[in-house]
Structure formats: structure tokens, C-alpha cells
Design brief:
78 residues; three-stranded mixed sheet; alpha+beta; GMP Synthetase, Chain A, domain 3; 3 helices; globular; single chain
């Protein structure tokens, strides 16, 4: 799942080398934290969150095939 999010994010942003995905395994679900460059944040979220919602939909479809739950969090650098 981590590789899928990395691939999708790197294909959307202007600075693919700044994309970081950290996976944390929980009891019931995996949590993926996505960090991108500050100027690419809008590209990942999209207008009214449409791009982020699409990424989450693709991720949930892939996770359901593996009988897993996955949560995607988009982290903003401070």
C-alpha cells in the first residue's frame, strides 16, 4: 500500500523527490502518512479535496482486495 501511495503522489507533484510515505501498522488498520513539498500540497489535495478523495478511494479498493483497512493522512510540514 505504501508503494501505491508513493507512486500516485510522485506522479502528481512537481517535486517527486520530496514525497515521503510513512506506514504505521495498527491493530485494525494501517495508517499511511503522506508528506510532500509545501508548494505541492495543493496538487495532492485538489479542488475541494477531490484529488485526496480519489487517492483514498484507490487505496481503499486495493486494501479491500487484501482484506485490510488503510487510512491516509496528508501531513503538512510546519
Amino acid at each position: 500500500m505504501k508503494e501505491l501511495v508513493e507512486l500516485l503522489a510522485k506522479s502528481l507533484v512537481n517535486h517527486p523527490d520530496a514525497v515521503e510515505v510513512k506506514e504505521t501498522q495498527g491493530d485494525t488498520a494501517s495508517v499511511l502518512e503522506l508528506k510532500v513539498a509545501r508548494d505541492d500540497l495543493g496538487r495532492i489535495i485538489g479542488k475541494q479535496g477531490r484529488t485526496a478523495k480519489s487517492i483514498r478511494t484507490i487505496l481503499n479498493a486495493a486494501a479491500s482486495r487484501a482484506n485490510r483497512k488503510v487510512v491516509l493522512e496528508i501531513v503538512e510540514e510546519k
